[in-house]
């Protein structure tokens, strides 16, 4: 799937629960356009790489929390803008493609702007953060390593981070969280 246009989940799609779902079995997903689902969900599932270079926005409307979920067993790259109440990368038991989709690598590029209003959960074998990520609660689970580059800071009020390795002696992981 190569998305370069604009997808906007407004009142018409909201009637069907406000979910925009991209599923690519055996292929990659490249989202270079604008996808909006205010108060709804943007769900991306692939057995290939996922590259988000555009804008994904699932803001909260009244009591409806917007969510963005990304699930693959390959690489996930964020170089665009991703904003939602809840952001989940790397899911267990997503059903449609495979029972478990944990990315081999999650790469948040220097150009990316990633923020969640409530919760951000990132699961992957390797998690690389190249720009600031922000959420009141951030949970990062990496099988091998969590790394930050350049001006990247993981900002949260509550931070849970699990990995075998945190950065290197040259580039340590930079955190801004009162509750770790």
Structure description:
With 180 residues, the protein is mainly β. 2% of the residues lie in helices and 55% in strands. It has 1 helix and 21 strands. The strands form 2 sheets. It has a 19-stranded parallel sheet that branches. A hairpin with a 7-residue loop joins β12 and β13 (100-101). The radius of gyration is 15 Å and the shape is globular. It starts with a strand and ends with a strand. Mean pLDDT is 83; it is low at 5-16.
**How many alpha or pi helices?**
1
DSSP strand tally:
21
Share of helical residues: under 10%
Average pLDDT figure: 83
The biggest beta sheet, please?
Answer: 19 strands, parallel
The residue ranges in which pLDDT falls below 50 over 5 or more consecutive positions are: 5-16
Q: Which descriptor suits the 3D outline?
A: globular
Overall SS class: mainly beta
Helix and strand pattern: EEHEEEEEEEEEEEEEEEEEEE
Rg calc:
15 Å
Note the beta-strand portion: over 45%
Q: What oligomeric state do the depicted chains represent?
A: single chain
Query: What is the distance, rounded to the nearest whole angstrom, between the alpha carbons of the first and last residues?
Result: 38 Å
SSE arrangement:
Layout: E1 2-3, E2 6-8, H1 11-14, E3 19-24, E4 29-31, E5 34-36, E6 41-46, E7 50-52, E8 55-58, E9 67-72, E10 75-78, E11 81-89, E12 91-92, E13 100-101, E14 105-108, E15 113-129, E16 133-134, E17 137-148, E18 154-155, E19 158-162, E20 165-166, E21 175-176
Salient structural properties:
180 residues; mainly beta; two-stranded antiparallel sheet; 1 helix; 21 strands
């Amino acid at each position: 799937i190569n998305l370069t246009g604009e997808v906007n989940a407004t009142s018409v799609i909201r009637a069907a629960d406000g979910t925009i779902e991209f599923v690519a079995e055996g292929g990659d997903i490249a989202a270079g356009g604008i996808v909006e689902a205010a108060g709804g969900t943007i769900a991306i599932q692939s057995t290939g790489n996922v590259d988000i270079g555009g804008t994904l926005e699932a803001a909260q409307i009244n009591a409806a929390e917007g969510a963005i979920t990304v699930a693959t067993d390959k690489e996930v790259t964020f170089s665009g803008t991703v904003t939602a109440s809840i952001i989940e990368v790397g899911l267990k038991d997503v059903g449609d493609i495979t029972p478990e989709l944990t990315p081999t690598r999650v790469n948040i590029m220097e150009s990316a702007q990633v923020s969640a209003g409530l919760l951000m959960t990132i699961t992957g074998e390797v998690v690389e953060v190249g720009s600031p990520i922000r959420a009141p609660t951030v949970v990062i689970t990496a099988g091998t390593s969590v790394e930050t580059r350049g001006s990247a800071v993981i900002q949260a009020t509550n931070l849970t981070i699990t990995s075998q390795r945190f950065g290197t002696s040259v580039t340590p992981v930079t955190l801004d969280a009162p509750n770790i």
